[in-house]
Design brief:
The chain is mainly alpha-helical. Helices cover 69% and strands 1% of the residues.
């Protein structure tokens, strides 16, 4: 007699999909994966599902080898998004992480437009990247990071108000600016300069200087690695990033204290600490990668716990 296994139940299939999202997050986002474990189970799984979409879409385009293949990969991701939001497409026809992503968006009422905006952000990384002004960089940060903050806030809070969403967007901007400052050298290798040309010129720098600093990485010429102009520029940009973290903080304090607040404080503090490490490395973002050490991470986890247990600030009454 031949025994056949019964078809997996919808709930089992959905659990497997959330498991696939968990694995993608574990492999590609160690800090976020660590921080997510203080979330309630439901929110944790949904956060992994959203991350899975972002990771898969970004990798598909970023790993393409030329402009034509990047455009084709982006078009494929746009078609994939259509399928994820099309109720006529059965869950079994979606990628392994797809049913969990769809379930999360339906449960939390996450607008499709957020993900269209994220794909727009991915398109901004296609080919050589040059940013002219802060307004351009702010728009870039909105697409690639602030929208992620808006999505996560829909998971963390049932009906977030506009002010809370603004704080979430600010945190996304702060974290993306941190990434940009940490990765100046690595981005140059990909023909990308996210530091606005206006800011470079303000401190007497140009694209040729970035190229020269990067050359020093290859030659390990410590004497000419960077100079006072570049260090002054980095101080300016780090201060800007810290201002965005400060704009985000009142919103973090308003998040539910079910582990959500602690999770976001953890991510905020770990990322902001990268700025401290850049300073500690004397602003060398060409020959050294700023990393937060194990003991520093441990102290920040404690600080996140302490901040999460402070009562949210009392709203200031409107003047009569």
């Amino acid at each position: 007699m031949t025994l056949t296994s019964p078809a997996a139940s919808p709930s089992a299939s959905l659990d497997a999909s959330y498991g696939a999202c968990r694995e993608i997050t574990r492999r590609h986002a160690r800090s976020f994966y660590l921080a997510s474990h203080t979330l309630p189970k439901g929110k944790r799984r949904e956060a992994w599902a959203v991350y899975a979409f972002c990771r898969v879409a970004d990798d598909a385009v970023d790993l393409a080898t030329d402009d034509a293949s990047r455009r084709a990969a982006l078009a494929a991701q746009e078609r994939g998004l259509d399928r994820l939001f099309d109720p006529r497409i059965e869950a079994a026809a979606l990628p392994s992480w797809g049913p969990a992503f769809r379930d999360t968006c339906e449960r939390r009422g996450i607008p499709r437009g957020y993900f269209d905006g994220l794909l727009k952000g991915i398109s901004l990384d296609c080919g050589a990247v040059r940013i002219g002004s802060w307004a351009e960089l702010d728009l870039y940060c909105h697409h690639v990071a602030s929208l992620c903050g808006l999505v996560m806030t829909r998971i963390f809070v049932a009906d977030p108000d506009a002010e809370l969403l603004d704080h979430a967007a600010a945190l996304g901007t702060a974290m993306q600016l941190t990434n940009i400052l940490r990765d100046v050298g690595e981005d140059w290798e990909r023909d990308r300069i996210y530091l606005p040309s206006y800011d470079l010129a303000k401190f007497g720098l140009g694209e040729g200087d970035i190229a020269a600093f990067h050359k020093d990485k290859a030659t390990k010429n410590k004497a000419g690695k960077t100079d006072d102009r570049f260090r002054a520029l980095m101080r300016f940009e780090i201060e800007r990033a810290r201002e965005w973290y400060q704009k985000a903080d009142p919103g973090i304090a308003r998040l539910p204290n079910d582990g959500t607040r602690r999770t976001v404080w953890t991510m905020r503090l770990l990322y902001a600490a990268i700025l401290d490490e850049i300073e500690r490395n004397d602003f060398d973002v060409f020959t050294r990668r700023a990393r937060v050490g194990r003991w520093r991470k441990a102290s920040l986890l404690v600080e996140a716990w302490l901040r999460s247990h402070r009562p949210p600030p009392t709203p200031t009454p409107e003047p009569r």
